[in-house]
Amino acid sequence: MTLKSGLIGCVVLSGWLMAGQVFAACTPPAVAGENVSACKVWPAYPGLTISASTRFEPGTTEALGTHDLDVSVLQDGQPTPIATYHQAAAFVMDGVHLKDLTLDTARYKLAPELRAFGVRATLANGSRLNPVEEHQLSLYVKEGETLRPVLRQLVVYEYGGDWDDNCAGQRFEISRTVDIAKTSSYGYADLIVRTQEKGTTSVVEGDACEDKTTVRQPVLTTLRYDGKTYVLPPGLKGL
User: How far is it, in rounded angstroms, from Cα 49 to Cα 115?
Assistant: First the structure.
């Protein structure tokens, strides 16, 4: 082995070890009330990795507490993040718990030279009789050494209902997709949110349990940037 090839091998190995350490710290637990984290390479920017993690702060009872949120962008080969964001009490655990964090690197091109990334959070209560589950999407942009949230906690999926543990009950399911519009406000592209809602009622018919499902017409909502953030109308912001 030549000196040059040996040095290259050491650099590559060092990069792998550092990446391994970062990703090893981003394994979300499946236990309510514990810290949650996620890591993902940012495909739009080779050499950059996005990390999101929470720190749980217990409240006065088991059902209450908060999660502080830290989001960062890391550069390959650098020991410290190149951009960060911190939010105290980002998620309030009032009857629900934070199940999961995932990173969304879809093509959120908000301006010609500006691309955002998303952090998705899943909250649920774990109840069989009265289940609640909600998926939230927040978008962040990098401004120098700072990450700035431009969309906060848009509900992109929601499920809930109640039943008698046998058959009778009602439940609903709402899903949303986000598209980039051709129009813009304050230099940021408008966002088109498509909402699809489905409701199901279950009743006992003789010896059978019958489901009646209603699917509503999709609803389109335009989110506009006000110079600081995308404004969410009532009903679209998360818990």
Answer: 14
- Does 93 or 136 have the greater pLDDT score? 136
What is the domain extent for residue 62? 26-223
- Tens digit of pLDDT for each residue in 130-183? 999 999 999 999 999 999 999 999 999 999 999 898 899 999 999 999 999 999
Q: Long-range contacts of range 170-175, CB-CB < 8 Å, 24 or more positions apart?
A: 170/199, 170/200, 170/201, 170/202, 171/131, 171/199, 171/200, 171/202, 172/197, 172/198, 172/199, 172/200, 173/197, 173/198, 173/199, 173/200, 174/198
Q: What is the value of pTM for the model shown?
A: 0.86
228 within some domain: no
- Write down the H helix ranges in the chain: 3-24
Place of tokens 């040059």: 4
The total of structural domains in the chain comes to: 1
Alpha-carbon gap, residue 67 to 54, rounded angstroms? 6
pLDDT in tens, 6-56: 433 333 333 333 444 444 455 555 555 578 999 999 999 999 999 999 999
Q: Which two tokens stand for residue 131?
A: 């289940």
9 in a structural domain: no
> Which of helix, strand or coil describes residue 103?
strand
